Amino acid sequence: MSTIVLVVYATRYGSTREVAKAIGAELRGNGLEVDVRPVREVRSLTGYSAVVLGAALYMFRWHRDARRFLSRHRKALLERPVAIFALGPTHDPHDEKEWQDSNAQLDKTLAKFPWFKPVAREMFGGKFDPNSLRFPLKWFAGAEPASDIRDWKAIRVWANKLVEKLEKSS
Ligand SMILES: Cc1cc2nc3c(=O)[nH]c(=O)nc-3n(C[C@H](O)[C@H](O)[C@H](O)COP(=O)(O)O)c2cc1C
Q1: CB 36 within 8 A of CB 18
Q2: What are the percentages of helix, strand and coil residues in the chain, rounded to 5?
Q3: The pTM is what?
Q4: Coil, strand, or helix at residue 4?
Q5: Domain residue spans of the chain
Q6: Which atom, in ligand 1's list, is nearest to the CA of 127?
Q7: Ligand 1 centroid to residue 17 C-alpha, Å
Q8: What residues are in contact with ligand 1 under a 6 Å CB criterion?
């Protein structure tokens, strides 16, 4: 069976969508068939042999739409290789503490889904723009400076490594 990958993303401000699109393009460049879609639009995984799920961290948890996706599609996800990524850290890319905290937040979310065993998992730096925030988020984080520490090279490298893992079990 050929590998048809669904790359789904959960975003509020669009930075995760851009990362999902970059991953999709890289997988396509490796000869895979790929759809990139917002997670909310997806009703069924029928027709897809593998899934990549990406979402930003908000308020110490993985985006709600990603959590819902895991709950709703449990059976189908158990039958396919699934890779996941999160966007979280937005400050100094070398601030290990921030990366550890974001990873711990992702761990905590995933611990609620003990059945879920992704074939790959990655944390990427995110993008932060205080001007785009609305209340109450503006109140919570509006004093932070703007930043974009998405590492496009690291994103492409990760996507390339995924190819084998997504193909393997399909
Ligand atoms: C109000 C707010 C809360 C956030 N909370 C967290 C958090 O708890 N942990 C974390 O690692 N990143 C947090 N972030 C960083 C986001 O994950 C990052 O900005 C990401 O790139 C946003 O993705 P999006 O543009 O796809 O919505 C937060 C960002 C905002 C604006």
Answers
A1: no
A2: 40, 25, 35
A3: 0.96
A4: strand
A5: 4-168
A6: 21
A7: 13
A8: 11-16, 56-60, 87-90, 102, 105, 126-128, 133, 137, 140-141
Ligand 1 centroid to Cα of residue 88, in Å, is 5
The whole-number pLDDT of residue 4 equals 96
The predicted-structure confidence for 133-167, as pLDDT tens digits, reads as follows 877 777 777 678 899 999 999 999 999 999 999 99
Question: 2.30.22.10, 3.40.50.360, 1.10.510.10, 3.30.470.20: which CATH number matches 4-168?
Answer: 3.40.50.360
Residue 168, pLDDT above cutoff 80: no
Task: Give the tokens for residue 118.
Answer: 């992704």
CA dist 26 and 6 (Å) reads 13
Binned at pLDDT 50, 70 and 90, residue 26 comes out as: very high
Distances (CA, A) of 86 to 2, 67, 109: 27, 12, 11
Measured from the Cα of 102, ligand 1's closest atom is 11
